[in-house]
Design brief:
Radius of gyration: 20 Å
Helix content: 10-25%
CATH topology of the largest domain: paralog of FGE (formylglycine-generating enzyme)
Order of helices and strands: EEHEEEHEHEEEEHHEHHEEEEEE
Shape: globular
Oligomer: single chain
Number of domains: 2
Strand order of the largest sheet: 1-4-3-6-2-5
Strand content: 15-25%
CATH class of the largest domain: Alpha Beta
Distance between the termini: 54 Å
CATH superfamily of the largest domain: paralog of FGE (formylglycine-generating enzyme)
Length: about 375
Amino acid sequence: MLGDIDIDSPEQGKFAHPLSVEQEHWPADEAAGMLGQESATSTFRVAQEDQGASASPADGNEGARDIGIDSPEPGKFAHPLSVEQGHWPADEVAGMLGQESATSTVRVAQEDQRASVSPADGNEAAAESPAHLLGKDSIDLLNSSGFSFVAIPAGTFMMGSAESELGRNEDERQHEVTLTRSFRMQTTLVTQKQWKLVMGTEPSLFGIEGDDCPVEGVSWNEVQEFVRRLNSLGDASYRLPSEAEWEYACRAGTASAFASGEITVFSCGHDASLDAAGWYCGNSGWKVHPVAQKAPNAWGLYDMHGNVCEWCQDWYGNYPATPQIDPLGSAFGPGRVVRGGSWFSNSQNCRSACRSWWAPNSRIDFIGFRLVKDEN
């Protein structure tokens, strides 16, 4: 059943501006709590369908409804996004009420899902791999698409941010990390072309921007299937980076907010250091861009501070206070770690130390990934 409900505009919150979301449930009390004053509205579509075991009986099979809402002002995640995620916390919804702002679109489409933070989440079904990738020319096809890697040396660095760093968040406790093994990291984000070569699907909401743009709209679970198919080719072992590997590679020996320099401007203002290295809300035009158009860091990695955020292998958790050696993150957590900034992010969320997480079944138009390659 469909219906229209007008609700007032969100205040500044964790998520901001037009977003589209696929999520597991939208509790009735949260939706009801969002009703309010007259304001310009936009469409918030919740399409609830048959759900898996992770949804409670009260949340499932409620049909679908349209809710008009205003857009939030920029917060931790700023501007248009599309999300498929396991939950939408009540405190975040409640915090989104209040001030007038420009309208935006939020789409919530619930589909059949598994538990959003269960270790079993890696078993999502995926389409059959294209037949041409099963042959001996598979690696050549990928290499010709710019599928390249650069050596990252072993070393020690300070992970997290200093308390004096502008824009820092409370979950960025600074601590010493040592990585005892070198590794090879992909120089660019995985592109739409590379995804299609391996998976035979076109998930990107920005597909019209071209094959050289980063793939987005892919869940952590689907990335695991991408990795499995690559590994079946036998030339090397591919995987997502750990959170520690990602930040170490992003910093490339620097201790500043960005590998390209210190942060000077908040939100979407022009930050010279960030503008040189990444696409964010201050220069992106609210869309993804072809990879490797901005300057790389000192280790030859592109787009570490923008374009799309990146999945990491770890569960999200609090940082320890003591030095760590080859950390692999928490044994369990609310979601998988997401790093880097994106085309809609404000400047502070593009910093090397900035952290976030999303449920592993989330498909979001500002999250993609890059791989680590371990030679066989």
